[in-house]
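Why this split exists: single-chain examples teach little about how molecules sit against one another. For that reason, every record in the complexes split bundles all components of an assembly together and asks for one structure covering all of them. Below is a record exactly as it appears in the raw files.
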Amino acid sequence: MARQKLSRGRLLLSVYRRLYRHYGDRNWWPADSPFEVMVGAVLTQNTAWINVERAIANLKFNQALDAKVMAELPPQLLAKWIKPSGYFNIKAKRLQNFCRWYLAQNGYRGLRKKPTDVLRTALLSVNGVGPETADDILLYAFDRPVFVIDAYTRRLMSRLGILDGDQKYESLRADFEVALKPDVTLFNQYHALIVEHGKNICRPRPRCGDCVLRSGCPGAMH
DNA sequence: ACCCAGGGTCATA
DNA sequence: TATGACCATGGG
């Protein structure tokens, strides 16, 4: 008999439940303030998080985790402090671009009043803030129901046969946001769980034997 | 020694 | 629209 075809929403929820049952609450984003989330979102671009932690620790040690301070810092000094996170010259420039824009928008108090689509467009207008960085900020700093797409998400959903990982960013994001109810807590946990699973199991070379999604992942996972 | 990591911009065809 | 070059440290 033919197996019933599940809707994408049900598939995505099923994957979510398995990940949650296995990994539990991820408690994201690891940061002490919304502004720290934003800085981390820029620093973690194509970079392992452990190195971002070192960079942020340096900023805190030098009392520079502040928009006004960071915006007025000599670029090479900022670059020196964020060095462990890689791409330090271009990231120093991006952070200063962002901080000047942030201050001009009256910081968090000013930005939080904007509707999500307006805020998203505004974030994307900052040089150095692309779609994933903007969505990290929207979800984890402003608590907006935006689903973050990253390399882990593409790889996992592609291997599960649920989504085509080669789609463009906006198309993939729309697929998630249409299939799932807009729920900040769900989106927050889901993305964090995908990253956790991606770091441990769903690697470029998959470690199929340990995969908690075994029973739900045909093909490429095995 | 090689590959990868919680991407984005810019030049080119 | 769609590739490719470039950015650069640190861990496995």
